[in-house]
Amino acid sequence: MTATYLEGLADPAVLPRIDEVNRGHFEAAARGRLAVRECTACGLLFHYPRPFCPRCHSAELTWTELSGNATVLVAALVSRPPWNDLPRSAPYPVVVVRLAEGPQMLSTVEDCDPTTVVAGMAVRAAFERVGDIGIVRFVPA
């Protein structure tokens, strides 16, 4: 599947701090791939990246690329950008999605009428490149 790329949503002045724990996720997103941590001890897939497995506390972790297919679990409509000079149209939907492979993510759904984003909606990962990293967003499937 070809990756979908979006532009102009993130503020380049306020990006996640990249470190050795989360670098794989953001570098994969810059390449149009959704990568999460997998515990090699117990097999748990999880997001947000952390240095230990949240289930068994093992530090034996690897990066695993997922399909990017997901279902919206919860959606909330945000009526204004988090700060006034962020060039983002509002309202926009903030969501928690469950990826097809199991992990959950907090993100946004783009390229649709924000009022149509509801729990149960099928979405797929889309990516926004900002410098050397990528931000994972979602679009209707």
TrEMBL record:
Transmembrane segments: none annotated. One of its GO terms (molecular function) is DNA binding. InterPro entries: ChsH2_C (IPR002878), ChsH2_Znr (IPR022002), NA-bd_OB-fold (IPR012340), Thioester_dehydratase-like (IPR052513). It holds the Pfam family OB_ChsH2_C. SUPFAM superfamilies: Nucleic acid-binding proteins. This is DNA-binding protein. Gene3D superfamilies: 6.10.30.10. Residues 63-128 form the ChsH2 C-terminal OB-fold domain. The keyword DNA-binding applies. Residues 26-61 form the ChsH2 rubredoxin-like zinc ribbon domain. Keywords: DNA-binding. The keyword Transferase does not apply.
